[in-house]
Design a protein that fits this description.
Blueprint: H1 2-14, H2 16-21, H3 25-44, H4 51-58, H5 62-73, H6 77-93, H7 100-105, H8 112-123, H9 127-137, H10 145-148, H11 151-161, H12 168-174, H13 179-189, H14 194-212, H15 217-223, H16 229-240, H17 244-249
Helix pairs in contact: 1-15, 3-5, 3-11, 4-5, 12-13, 15-16
Length: about 250
């Protein structure tokens, strides 16, 4: 029943007619603020940006940006920024040419030590180990992304719409590329399937909600885009090696 009510509420928010006539001006303003902030972070993650800078450049209040980003993603600003940086570092690790130092510097980390620590915490292995593992998986096909591909556009779109019922067709259409190009880009440059990429993003956001809110597991499952607690728990176990309840207790 909880899952049904959460899904019903979510569908109401997604309906253009409902959102136009029911959402208050303040609620619409918050949605735009979150969208603008996420876009800004994705466009500037390689720079030494701060919450104050994001807010100032967008003409917003730092406290408002912090609160609305947290409410939407379940993550504090710097945790969200670090996740986006790590995910983009993974793209560059698919290339053999860039050094680890170059990747750290060009994804916004202040030092190699900070990069290694953040990467190990996020992925469970070192950048070198990740590169060796995924270079073999991608069969050396990654390499053209610096010039002409959609890897970063795909990452941004998934981060922006992760809580919606996304399909490869929806994402490809939104980015004006073919579904086959979408699959190829994700496989060769992100070393993931579309399903795994979407699940990774959703699970990261769910971890923030599990840490910081009193929402039930069923509510969080629906909030981050899963259609049932069972599907959410199965994906969570796959990525985190524990159940959502065990994670929350820890």
């Amino acid at each position: 029943l909880v899952e049904f009510m959460m899904l019903f509420s979510k569908k109401q928010r997604e309906c253009p007619l409902i959102s136009t006539h029911v959402l208050s001006k303040t609620e619409r303003s918050k949605i735009k603020m979150v969208t603008d902030a996420l876009k800004y972070i994705h466009n500037n993650y390689a720079k030494p940006i701060s919450l104050s800078q994001v807010a100032n450049d967008l003409g917003l209040s730092p406290s408002a940006v912090r609160e609305d980003l947290f409410a939407y993603t379940g993550q504090e600003f710097f945790a969200l920024l670090s996740e986006i940086r790590i995910r983009n570092a993974c793209v560059l690790l698919g290339l053999k040419t860039p050094t680890i130092k170059y990747i750290a510097q060009n994804t916004g980390f202040s030092s190699l030590q900070t990069f290694y620590r953040a990467f190990k915490e996020s992925k469970g292995i070192t950048p070198e180990a990740y590169r060796r593992k995924h270079w073999l998986e991608s069969e050396g096909k990654a390499g053209y992304l610096m010039y002409n591909n959609k890897a970063w556009d795909i990452l941004y779109y998934v981060h922006k719409h992760f809580d919606e019922p996304l399909t490869p067709e929806i994402v490809a259409n939104a980015l004006s590329i073919s579904v086959s190009q979408l699959y190829k880009t994700i496989k060769n440059d992100l070393m993931l399937s579309f399903t795994d990429l979407l699940q990774e993003v959703r699970i990261k956001y769910s971890c923030g909600l599990l840490r910081s809110t009193s929402l039930s597991v069923a509510q969080i499952a629906i909030e981050v885009g899963f259609e049932s607690t069972r599907t959410f728990s199965r994906a969570f176990m796959k990525h985190m090696d524990c159940t959502p309840t065990q994670f929350k207790e820890r």
